[in-house]
Automatic annotation (TrEMBL):
This is Hemerythrin-like domain-containing protein. It comes from Apiosordaria backusii. Pfam families: Hemerythrin. Residues 3-107 form the Hemerythrin-like domain. It comes from the Eukaryota. Residues 166-190 are annotated as: Disordered. The lineage of its organism: Eukaryota, Fungi, Dikarya, Ascomycota, Pezizomycotina.
Amino acid sequence: MATITQAITDDHRHIQDCYNEVVNSTDPDHQQRWGNQFTWELARHSVGEELILYPAFEWHMGIVKRLLKEFQSMSSTDPDYVPKIKELWCKLEDHIKDEEGHDLPALEEKLTPEHSESMARSFRRTKHFVPSRSHPLAGEHPPFESVMGLLTAPIDRLTDLFRKFPDKPEEAKPSGPRIDIPPGGNAVHD
């Protein structure tokens, strides 16, 4: 069974893979698909952390959420699209290093293996029914933000049907265990 540290670390690597697909491409269609995948994965990851991890060590990543809100509304043809995802990644990378280097090891020391495995399962399950976009009007403080997020998830799923994502499930998860693909994974619209 995976620990919560492994579940979060795997998710971080996947988000990084999506980021790399955007910044290492010059094709706007490819960038748009992977930018949508990046937004989808990061939004779900953030809410999953808020619901599962943050109660354990009471930490909040407000700047990353603000940058995600700005990035998700941009088009890959916007000249600031790649610079904005780079700015977002810079902040996110600091968060990932802190979390993996300090927060998660400190948390793991306090958890039994069974509790860590249970949290990992909860984290993965939670990502299946949380919003796939950041929602500025949902507020900034749990539990209100979490409740509002859960209410917006079905709307996100519907609008994801009309967003471009990588065409094949394998493309959306370049390595590691398979994570579910957004419902619009094969859509052809922006």
